[in-house]
Amino acid sequence: MKIHNFYAGPSILPQYTIKNTADAILDFAGTGLSVMEVSHRSKEFVAVMDEAQALFKELLNIPDGYSVLFVGGGASTQFAMVPFNLFKKKAAYLNTGAWSKKAIKEAQYFGEIDVVASSENKLFNYIPKGYTIPEDADYFHITTNNTIYGTEIKYDMDSPVPLVADMSSDIFSRPVDISKYALIYGGAQKNLAPSGVTFVIVRDDILGKMDRYIPTMLNYQTHIDKGSMFNTPPVVPVFAALQTLQWLKQNGGIEAMHKTNEYKAGLLYNEIDRNSIFRATVVEQSDRSLMNICFVMKEGYEGLEKAFFDYATAEGMVGIKGHRSVGGFRASTYNAMPVDSIKALIKTMQDFESNNK
Ligand SMILES: *Cc1c(COP(=O)(O)O)cnc(C)c1O
Question: Does 162 score more than 90 pLDDT?
């Protein structure tokens, strides 16, 4: 039976990435060695790191004056690294979910946090609007895609202060005007690579303005100065990330991905809205994530939740259980997810509806 991988992260990767990484595990770049056992200072791996950084810049159209870093620690380490490097007196945060809250919690240690708006009153099922970003904040932090709740900020906002974004789960899913951001970070395990590598895009001129001691590994400048080679980078995940970047380029780049993502998400949201048994948790079209599509049982059908889960599992759907804080279902539809898997899920929902009318 065909397996359809809807896991939220780690999650589906292109076959190209998996195949090339598997090959390199056995023989990396004709060295006769595994990519797991070569020095990160070898010329073969240095070439991988260089190409990954260059393709990252090319695909995202990153302007001059920005650095691309591949570091360890996950997006969760960035929650502290951002304030270590940017927080002087006060920072502003938008609270759109569990990941935003974790970022806020880490920053609170440094001083005053202005949470300009929150959607917690409705279990984070919308993106707050109409708030003002304080001009005296050192930076404004947003989570562009809320992996758990299925909401997404699908536009690049203007901010009077440096804009910092956690793009863990929507990087490379849509074109981004990088010039609007001072810093973008994310764990790679949603849309790029296996877990273990964290990407950072940082505008160089926002750094170097702190009086405090910044621990060496938590200082962005350390990694900029050494081209992400200050210490041993996550070699295998960086290799895999490069494969995904090559795959992205071969498949038309981000514009093409975005088109397909809109098509895929449109198909699934249409079915959820049409189906008499399910409803989408995010009502506002403009707030609906293209990457994580959340739905629950409609009123009166709650008792069928487990039955649908079992039915979908038997049909080969993997990873569709919603996050425990939301319940219901979540289909993560990252770049590598084929249209056929979306159609298979839709058919499963339609068959389940017919069987339970
Ligand atoms: C998964 C996720 C994180 C956490 O990433 P780690 O790499 O596990 O620390 C943070 N933010 C968002 C939006 C995520 O989806």
Answer: yes
Whether 168 has a pLDDT exceeding 90, the answer reads: yes
Nearest to 8 by CA among 138, 124, 170: 170
Determine if the pTM surpasses 0.90.
yes
Q: Which numbered atom of ligand 1 lies nearest the CA of 189?
A: 7
Same domain membership, residue 295 and residue 228: no
Instruction: Report, as an integer, the average pLDDT of 74-95.
Output: 98
- 280 φ/ψ angles, rounded to the nearest 5 degrees: -75, 140
Owning domain of residue 276: 253-355
**Together in a domain, 89 and 152:** yes
CATH number of the domain that residue 278 is part of: 3.90.1150.10
Three-state SS at 305: helix
9-40 per-position pLDDT tens digit: 999 999 999 999 999 999 999 999 999 999 99
Give the nearest ligand 1 atom to 77 CA: 9
| Residues involved in catalysis | 99, 166, 190
Do 169 and 229 fall into the same domain?
A: yes
Q: What is the DSSP-derived secondary structure letter of residue 8?
A: S
How much distance in Å is there from the Cα of 190 to the middle of ligand 1?
A: 8
pLDDT on residue 357: 82
Q: Which atom of ligand 1 is nearest to the CA of 195?
A: 7
CA–centroid distance, 215 to ligand 1, in Å, is: 22
Nearest protein CA to atom 4 of ligand 1, as residue: 75
Residue 50 CA to residue 248 CA, distance in Å, equals 17
Q: Is the CB of 196 under 6 A from ligand 1?
A: no
Residue 147 lies in a domain: yes
What CATH number should be reported for the domain holding residue 151? Answer: 3.40.640.10
**What's the whole-number average pLDDT of the chain?**
98
Phi, psi dihedral angles at 235 (to 5 degrees): -60, -50
pLDDT in tens, 268-300: 999 999 999 999 999 999 999 999 999 999 999
* Number of structural domains the chain divides into: 2
How many CB atoms within 10 Å of residue 61?
13
Distance 80 CA to ligand 1 centre (A): 13
